[in-house]
Specification:
Low-confidence stretches: 1-8, 168-186, 531-539
Distance between the termini: 65 Å
CATH topology of the largest domain: Beta-Lactamase
Mean pLDDT: 81
Shape: elongated
Largest sheet: 6 strands, antiparallel
Number of strands: 19
Structural class: alpha+beta
Radius of gyration: 33 Å
Strand content: 15-25%
Strand order of the largest sheet: 3-2-1-6-5-4
CATH class of the largest domain: Alpha Beta
Oligomer: single chain
Amino acid sequence: MALNDQIFQTPLGSLTRATTAIARARSVKEVIETIRRTARSLVGCDGITVIRREGDLCRYVEEDAIEPLWKGQKFPAIACISGWAMINRQTVVVPDIAQDDRIPIELYAGTFVRALAMAPVRPSDPIGAIGAYWSQAYTPSRWEIETLEALAEAAAAAIENVDFIASLSDQLVNAKGTDLAGRQQFVDDFARDIEFVGSIDAVPIILDIVLRMTGMGFAAVARVTETKWITCQALDHVGFGLKPGDELPVETTLCNEIRDHRQPIVFDDAEVDPRYRDHHTPQIYGLRSYISMPIILANGTFFGTLCAIDSSPAKVNDPMVIGTFKLFAELIAHHLDAGERLQAAQESLERERELAELREQFIAILGHDLRNPLAAVDAGASRMLQEGWTNRTPAILKLMKSSISRMAGLVDNLMDLARARLGGGITLTVFHGDLTDTLQHVVGELQVAHPERHISASFNFSSPVVADHPRIAQMFSNLVSNAVTHGSADKPIVITGITAEGAIEVCVSNGGRPIPKDRIDRLFMPFTGADGMAPAHGLGLGLYISSQIAKAHGGQIDVFSDEIETRFTFRMPMLVMDP
């Protein structure tokens, strides 16, 4: 067996992979399953169990053991050893259950358990515990206890992360829809950072030089935040097990401390170093030698670290080594800054290109579209000046008022365009209201305006809806008007509205010629008609503004079109107003 293979199968490599898997879990169930799958072999015991605290009860939710234990059962916290560990907020070790008064012997009589260790999950405010069991009287080693505690610490960090993301998502939904992309942006930012570092040609060379210079086995560039430690690039000669995108619980790393004080941490041998021989990071990961240099961007932002580790001592606390690491960290920061500037320049150029195109379209279409109502107003005013008040004057005034309303509508659309494109999105004024009444009113108006068209509407909303009802009416009016304009006159317009799985869904469908698939993606662009082409009438802003109203509510509009029907479907989550 090769040396690298041997090291890859060491407890250090196994523990690293397990804590990484726990940290990457996206649900409590996944955290528990990872512990069940890995803890027993890591600790070297005959059984493992995961307990969750439920008020004054301890529920044994999962286990992996040579014989069944208590999975699915609940016990009072004051009557079981897991409860003792949580109540006292400390790991408990029982080498012989027959000699410990805290053990309820009657519960253990039918099991194989003769010794145990129990570590609380999040000792400061326990939410659970992880227990290890042996089939004979046994005193676990320091490594076995620290491994159990490392798994408990990783589980605590992962569960807090899961809860944080869930609560953040709820807050975003409840606050306003324009922020719903925040969670995805949170993920995308890390993906972008990993891609940035991966695109720097110098990084693989730097990592190779670092390992050759120090004789260490693992080096990496890590992205470090208050809640995350993520590998961006790594060179792994010892099977540490981390690759780009992999994550460690940030609380278990020394980089978390570097993020606070922004100074390098270096030691040749943790076992003899007075500051780090009792530190939890070397104990968890089995580190002997370590060097980590902060990567600080030009604007003072802490990005992460350039670090190297090994399970053997190494000569790294040396001015030349530290100076080289500092130089490499500054070089990486320089490349990251350059990448940020390049991306910002590209985004600015693209935005300017889009704005220039919009300005050209705006001038051409607005000039064309305003000409007719302005000409009508001018002609009407001229006739009234020439003829004075006649029997025809009321009709002329009515036509002039219609033209002015038309121009006011154009101005309103342009204001909405400005808000959506330049003001960060359309703002909402939300309140509880009857959405059925809101939509029925729009249907009634359009039915009166188009008595020749058959419009069938059916709404079934379970409760009053929190929304900006005038904006919803504006969006809905645009969708139905498009159906009237572009649908077949001999086929009905069918409208449905329901509440399903915590969301509002409104569909507007019509028969007629299908929208070509290659034009569907253009439907919601400014100055585009409802068929994806340049608008024949109006500014072509209706669907664009409708999509922005949907987005502001945390929803979206989907389009389906074939030879049978064209269907626009608006979906939005049920919003909740702050008390």
